[in-house]
Design brief:
Layout: E1 17-18, E2 37-39, E3 51-57, E4 67-70, H1 78-81, E5 85-92, E6 98-106, E7 111-112, E8 116-118, E9 125-130, E10 137-138, H2 144-149, E11 151-158, E12 170-181, H3 186-196
Antiparallel strand pairs: 1-12, 2-3, 3-12, 4-11, 5-9, 5-12, 6-7, 6-8, 6-11, 7-10
Length: 202
């Protein structure tokens, strides 16, 4: 399965991979003293492999929450595209263990995935987020299937509690190789991750 090129006008597709060769519409809101940044040579492959750095200071003002969102490239009808999970490579650069979730918003309201724990000062770890309706938890939403059929926003955030806004924490997270995959099977994800290593950043 090849890593597909991304277009700001195209709906999410099976096999789509975000390699953060650019910012590609990822944001954390405004004002924010710590906007997400593409960092060259910081991805799992090292030289030539960029990643997205998300930073927060844990304060009560802007920049206090560890969160990033996309309202363009990762929208659309996930079940119709055959997408039942999203895999990602994560690296915690802070001294606090992180509880990473994905959050999706759409016609049925906000829902979040289960927590993927990332230890303090971790190396790169691969996590898989189950996006089947039965695996999601309501964060104010009423119909997970309706949301997944018309996703308008995808978020990556830290929050041990069920919350689409993220929790306040002083930390830094590197994110890379966000992948839309057909099922949350560990065996399948390992195969896809291994295949993905053949692809370098453009």
């Amino acid at each position: 399965m090849a890593c597909l090129p991304l277009s700001s006008k195209a709906a999410v597709t099976l096999g789509q991979t975000e390699d953060f060769s650019g910012i590609h519409g990822w944001d954390s809101g405004s004002p924010n003293p710590f906007p997400p940044q593409v960092v060259p040579d910081s991805g799992p492959l090292g030289a030539g492999d960029s990643a997205l750095r998300i930073t927060s200071n844990g304060g009560t003002g802007p920049g206090g929450r560890l969160i990033v969102f996309n309202e363009t490239l990762w929208t659309g009808d996930y079940p119709a595209a055959g997408i039942l999970a999203i895999a990602a490579d994560l690296r915690n650069g802070g001294s606090t263990p992180l509880s990473i979730r994905l959050a999706v918003n759409g016609a049925g309201g906000w829902f979040v995935t289960s927590v993927a724990p990332v230890a303090a000062f971790s190396g790169w770890v691969n996590q898989v987020f189950d996006l089947r309706p039965s695996a999601l938890t309501s964060a104010g939403g009423l119909d997970a299937a309706a949301t997944l059929s018309a996703v308008s926003e995808l978020r990556v955030l830290h929050s041990a509690a069920v919350d689409f806004r993220g929790a306040r924490v002083s930390s830094s997270l590197l994110l890379d190789n966000l992948r839309a995959v057909p099922e949350p099977s560990g065996v399948l994800i390992v195969a896809l991750a291994g295949f993905g290593c053949f692809f370098r950043k453009r």
